[in-house]
Specification:
The chain is mostly helical. Helix content is about 75%, strand content about 0%. It is built from six helices and no strands. It has helices spanning about 5-25, 30-45, 50-70, 75-115, 125-135, 140-145.
Length: about 140
């Protein structure tokens, strides 16, 4: 079931996806807005994540984003968005979100390959991963024995 507060990063990622698809560049403002909205929602108690979870998730998001950027798997905007999403999802949920992102990215890569494209806009995969996690947050837990 969707936690409605997650519509904030979803709407921001949707706008970033449109910009990525149109221009292949994403404004830093989207990452800043996602990060700021996470902090505001936690401060007002609208999102059930501790400050420690927020900070650690952000740190893990930065590390993951920089690693993927360094190895040429992410663009700069993708790395920054991953760090911002770490503030939203914390250290326990961010890896699960990123599994969804990777699966969505694989589908988009397959479509791009079939169309003869060598590059693809990856923010739509990040958006799809967040939507999939938001609508099915316990799927990975239910699949474990």
């Amino acid at each position: 079931m969707l936690n409605w507060i997650l519509l904030i990063p979803i709407v921001l990622l949707a706008a970033a996806s449109i910009q990525d698809l149109r221009t292949r560049e994403v404004s830093d403002g989207f990452s800043v807005a996602i990060a700021t909205s996470a902090v505001v929602c936690i401060a007002f108690g609208w999102w059930p994540l501790s400050w420690a979870g927020c900070g650690l998730g952000g740190l893990i998001g930065i590390i993951l984003g920089v690693m993927l950027f360094t190895f040429g798997r992410f663009g700069g905007a993708d790395a920054k968005l991953t760090a911002a999403l770490g503030l939203w999802f914390g250290p326990l949920m961010l890896p699960l979100v990123m599994v969804w992102v990777a699966l969505a990215g694989a589908v988009l890569a397959g479509i791009a390959y079939a169309r003869g494209k060598k590059e693809l806009a990856y923010v739509p995969a990040i958006l799809a991963g967040v939507i999939l996690h938001a609508t099915m947050p316990n799927l990975w837990i239910s699949l474990t024995p």
